[in-house]
């Protein structure tokens, strides 16, 4: 994000505690793409953009650190990406659940009060998540909806039905930001972002930074790797693409270059003072099975041999559900969706292939063992006769584990007819 904004003429400062590297290491993983040290990244940034960003090594939950940064910078806009972004990480145990809540909510509260006291005219662009809404049996508006109840009408926040302690921390964040706008007269854009994928945040090979020290990270472990990241990494090392349960969960997705475009549009088009607005940010919705089929098709075209398998779903979630969210506000500001997932996936695979050994060395983190009931048990592969509970996809006693579960790359694929046609 710092590179994207700098390339468009913005002067960028930042604060970072380096927690992401620690969290991923705790999960036994690492970025599929090598990540340079902070100093190496800053040096490369200065070489590429002829300016060095003002970076503070600090924790957003430290109020004094946040206030000092605001005093030094007096920002016109704040893009708040500094939260723990992992549902599985928040579900490990009580300590992780409480830590995620405190880190995410307290950090945002410090930003809100620093804005009130030191930068009241600034615009907060806070990264939320489409996961705040859950999967209601209704179309999902952008934050608010009109409702009539007992003969009276009002415009109210759309009810949230979050599915993890992490997602609930984001809901609380949204409520706090909305309240701060009302009582402090702040201006904020809450971006309910879909699942982001991709490696090229400028959207083209020509604009992609040549220096590897400026490339983005790509995680593939169970806590910080998204489904598409995992599928692409599995493809390049010959592991099966693993669907959670039925694979019919539908979500919104967008490439990282579209995420950068949308966040920049929000920064460049602030709301009025006192206004709290919500943008749903995604390109298109897909089921997890559809995503696996897309990755498999692109990978096959590149000479790889992808296979698709189902595993027990460690989460408590609906796998058959209605999902139709609105996303009109960003296109109204000029958002132009990439709408070419195949090209984005091909670029991902091209960037990952040189790092096959790096990914293969951590292949054990690809299968989840964090379960929503608080236990730790690695998900087993499911046979064709497995009967799944469509309410939560947990995979009960009828789910069969394959004989070579410890070597999933050697088992036969089980691809349903929809996936077979897509391939």
Individual helix count: 14
- What's the story with the biggest beta sheet? 4 strands, parallel
Strand content: 5-15%
Mean pLDDT: 90
| CATH homology group | NAD(P)-binding Rossmann-like Domain
Uncertain residue ranges: 385-423
**Order of strands, widest sheet:** 3-4-7-11
Name the overall outline. globular
Number of strands: 13
Computed over alpha carbons, the radius of gyration is 21 Å
* Helical proportion, percent range: 25-40%
CATH class: Alpha Beta
Description:
It is built from 14 helices and 13 strands. The strands form five sheets. A four-stranded parallel β-sheet has the order 3-4-7-11. Strands 8-10-12 form a three-stranded mixed β-sheet. The chain is globular and about 55 Å long. It is 36% helix and 15% strand. With 423 residues, it is an alpha/beta fold. A hairpin with a 2-residue loop joins β5 and β6 (152-157).
Can I get a quick summary?
By secondary structure, the protein is α/β, with parallel strands linked by helices. It has helices at residues 2-7, 19-26, 38-49, 63-73, 87-90, 94-118, 165-184, 227-237, 256-268, 288-301, 329-333, 341-352, 356-360, 417-422; strands at 13-16, 54-57, 77-80, 123-127, 144-149, 152-157, 187-193, 195-197, 241-244, 250-255, 276-281, 284-287, 308-311.
